[in-house]
Amino acid sequence: MAMGWAGLGRKGGSKRARTGVPRGGRKGAWRRAQLRRVGAAALGGCAVWAAVAAMSPGEPAREQAVAAAADLPAGHRLATADVKLVAIDAASAPASRVADGSAAVGQVLAYPVESGELLTAPRLRPSSGLSELSKSERAVHVPVADRGALALVRPGDRVDVVSVATGQTVGAGLLVLSVDQAAAAAGGLSGGGDSPTGLVLAVPPAEVSKIVPAAVGGEGGVHLAVRPDGGA
What we know:
Blueprint: H1 2-19, H2 25-55, E1 62-68, E2 83-89, H3 101-104, E3 108-109, E4 124-125, E5 138-143, H4 147-150, E6 158-163, E7 169-179, H5 181-186, E8 198-203, H6 205-217, E9 222-226
């Protein structure tokens, strides 16, 4: 009897070996095959994504520019609150754009601009000595016959204006905003040429009525007395 059971066991084991079914059965083999297929598909998908990403263009280059922070009229002097920095597509950025906010502050608009509009060089009026003019002063061009006196003066200096006819000081401690180019080019104590020369002064409104008649209508015009550096 014992031998019979042993023989049966040997016969069963031989049958399992002949079928080639791995331990765990056909169901486990099917699952492993499915996992291999899913893994292969995932690897293939990653390869395709990497290839597409390599061929796709990257983010466009960006550059900084200055734009108006509000609607502003022509003649407006830009303050810090009037401008803002924006990022724009480098490919479409205008060559004349203003890229530095500090360079725009203090400039005067030659044309009106709308909120968000980029500031460009043609939109800004070239800077001049008038940027030094306060709201309580007026810019007055004063012709001066003595070119030697003009040769001593530079923008930023302060001068006294004296009537040649009366010897009276008609303007004291006035800021020089600019000097005529003809006078500056003449140099020395005796300039040449017949074109009138002079300078632009920052004059309080109360003194404008004194300086203009003396410089334009008075006999002999006016003379300049230049003050020391920093002298007010």
